[in-house]
Amino acid sequence: MKITEATTEEVFKLLDTSESGLKEDEAKQRLIHFGYNEIKESKKIPLVLRFLRQFTHFLAIILWLAAVLAFVSDYLHPGEGMRHLGFAIIGVIFINAVFAFAQEYKAEKAIEKLRLMLPFYVKVVRDGTQKEIAAKDIVPGDLIILSEGDKVPADSRVIESNFLTVNNAPLTGESQPVTLTHEPLQEELIESKNIAFAGATVVSGNGRAVVFATGMNTEFGRIAHLTETVQIQETPLQKEIARTSKFVAAFATLIGVVFFIIGHTIGRSFWENFIFAIGVIVALVPEGMLPTVTLSLAIGSQRMLKRKALVRTLTAVEALGSITVICTDKTGTITQNKMEVKKIWTVDSQALEMLMKIAYLCNNAKFVDNQYKGDPTEVALLKYVKENTGDFVAERVSEIPFDFERKRMTTVNIIDGIKVSLTKGAIETVLPLCNYAMINGEKVEMNEEIKEKINTVSHSLMDEGLRVLCFAYSQDEPEKDMIFTGLIGLEDPPRPEVKDAIKKCHEAAVRIILITGDASRTAVAISKEIGLVKNPLVIEAEEFHKMSDTELKEKLKEKELLFTRMTPKDKLRIVTLLQEVGERVAVTGDGVNDAPALKKADIGVAMGSGTDVAKESAEIILLDDNFATIVNTIEEGRAIYENIRKFISYFFTSNVAELVPYIAYALFKIPLPLTVMQILSIDLGTDILPALALGAEKPTAEVMKKPPRSHKERLLNLKLLLRVFLVLGPIEAAAGLFGFFYVLHSGGWQWGQALSSKSILYMQATTACLTGIVLAQVANGFASRSFSESILSIGIFSNKFLLAGIVFEIALQLFIVYYPLGNIIFSTHPIPLTAWLVLIPFAMVLLAVEEIRKLTSSLPR
Ligand code: ATP
């Protein structure tokens, strides 16, 4: 029998299950037999191929070219050591590939781990009780419960539907929601309206279903097999770095060629020109840069996770730093979502019992296993009535559920044999339906005087920051001729961390716009309490809907803005218009209907407690639902971007210092001050760890004291380039050249005199040049820790990674200078202590110049 044509009883029989679900033991057995309910990733590119790819990208090709040049020149001029250089460059390509591959791999694993961090839970019935289990543990035969916002975990046959409406877009591409039924149908599986498919989401309503296919056996699994490939998207920043690297490499090649020609015209030999061209290329190509950037983004995402934000893409990590506006909900994000009944008001005391009945019966919260479960507003009401009045027993006939358009809910109950309909909701949607009020135990016709009184009381409750609900009932048709019963004010205290977070945003020039479903007065009171606003412009739903887009855009410029009585659709409109006026928007959301706004925003922020659909549409998931966490991620995002600039500036500075000796060599008749192997010892040796450590620098206070970066801003802006090319690089180059000539002169060398590359004096001179650059890079490591703060104020010892990196840097340099093996590999020779001593002042000057610059250009506050 086909699953679509079976009755509920037959479905149970077919799948060997029952009304009380599977037994746990049986479920375990089935899990072993059917395996996890997971979509397996289709084939990834094999690791070997991915490793090989590291040898064929643009930079690698340039280095291959350099190696070939070296071999050619060795062929033309044997015995000049060019063959060694050729091998060395191939070694570089290898080291580079391993390094890049390892970093990319590590970054990718970090991201994958983040993805796995968030298992989706499913409500199932097993052994007759309802529980939540991870979606991957679902097996055929499981009885699952589906409600609004859930993702369907596996292909299931519906056996109960209360307006259960799903969106099958992931499977069919058809985004029109379909309402499902539990009736047997004579339809093809894929078209059948009694099947909920894996991957679909529940848009509204609720129901129960029995799972009949899991994992790769689901319809989704079948198509996923065909189409899904796991691809980690390149972020705009990574693209920019790749572009920059290519540009620099092309530039290096060009310089190589130009100086080759210059060399040729001033009468240098062919192979001397070759070494030169190769040196320039190797000096300028930023070998380790791209993988370091990727890794530092990945490290950033892990740091955000420690601060309770799960970031789903690397793109989001960097986009966070440019956010200019946060649109946030109130309930649960700004506040704790711990509602408590604070004030109760009825026109007279006789209405109190009826008020309690409505609060208790027109309520879907539950008290099970000594715990309250459900919507926090309703839990608060239930708790209050249970603790103060006691339970009420009444049969519920039907329900018009709460929705944020109507902002009220109604149930029809039979109380003491009489049918009544009970309503609770926002005052402006309930009070207009009330034609009567309960006064002195009697039903009196509503009049302006009573209405005014009710409104006055409600306003005063709202002004205390309370959420006010209005209660009424009717003995007639539901929501007709209702009798006003009373008001209840609920308190939902703000989260304690929010105040500071808001202050940080204000300093960081990030605007916060509150978009709430709650009433204006409540929103204003709470916003003032937390220091969000002083004198805000409040736009309520009614006015909002009348405004044209142009008018609204004008209002969106306002500094202090609150939108009240909003629905998710309104939120989407606000986000869209903000983006149209050039803002970069982060928006929070938790419901199914928030998905479009979350997707539209630059950064969608879903609540950890929110629906699956919201989480899937968002870039960031707040594990603690806390507004302060968003601000923390912005801080991290900004810091990461700064860090990337820091190590790029650090890398480029030594590149300049490596290039200058070659230019000097080309222009003046001097021996080559720095060999190609020595350049490599910096680029792939001493520079690496300090650069990585700069990428891990913690956010300093300064990052949240300036406005967001413009998204048009380039990573390498003019200021940074000028500093590197005209100040820091030249100081380092001066250190290197000074070391070189200091040793030469001490050894009696005369200007113009030729030196054999094998002579001890020459080797010592190049060693001093290298040492000068490395010492200056040590100072540069400290100087680069912050673009604007003095090293003394951030603390010399506060980045342990950097200290370790610098210890390594110096140790490696000592190995290169004093250890015989180091001497052989890098053609160096031990230098006396005095050579170090004359070089140290250059490092000090570099640090001092940066300190003075930081002092004199202090940030505008
Ligand atoms: P925010 O958007 O800031 O998170 P919210 O999500 O609490 O606010 P909604 O849930 O849209 O806002 O609620 C809007 C209004 O609907 C509330 O102010 C209240 O008057 C009414 N309301 C909320 N929950 C219920 C409920 N369970 N039954 C009846 N009315 C409700």
UniProtKB/TrEMBL annotation:
Keywords: ATP-binding, Cell membrane, Membrane, Nucleotide-binding, Translocase, Transmembrane, Transmembrane helix
InterPro entries registered for this protein in UniProt: ATPase_P-typ_cation-transptr_C (IPR006068), ATPase_P-typ_cation-transptr_N (IPR004014), ATPase_P-typ_cyto_dom_N (IPR023299), ATPase_P-typ_P_site (IPR018303), ATPase_P-typ_TM_dom_sf (IPR023298), ATPase_P-typ_transduc_dom_A_sf (IPR008250), ATPase_P-type_domA (IPR059000), Cation_transp_ATPase_P-type (IPR050510)
SMART domains according to UniProt: Cation_ATPase_N
Residue ranges annotated for the Cation-transporting P-type ATPase N-terminal domain, each copy included: 2-75
Gene Ontology cellular component terms for the protein in this record: plasma membrane
Domain of life where this protein originates: Bacteria
Subcellular location field: Cell membrane
Membrane topology label: Multi-pass membrane protein
GO molecular function, one term: ATP hydrolysis activity
UniProt keyword Phosphoprotein, yes or no: no
Transmembrane domains' residue ranges: 51-72, 84-102, 247-267, 273-299, 720-741, 761-780, 801-821, 833-852
PROSITE patterns, alphabetized: ATPASE_E1_E2 (PS00154)
NCBIfam families referenced in this protein's UniProt entry, alphabetically: ATPase_P-type
Family the entry assigns: Belongs to the cation transport ATPase (P-type) (TC 3.A.3) family. Type IIA subfamily.
Protein name from the UniProt record: Cation-transporting P-type ATPase
Protein source organism: Thermodesulfovibrio autotrophicus
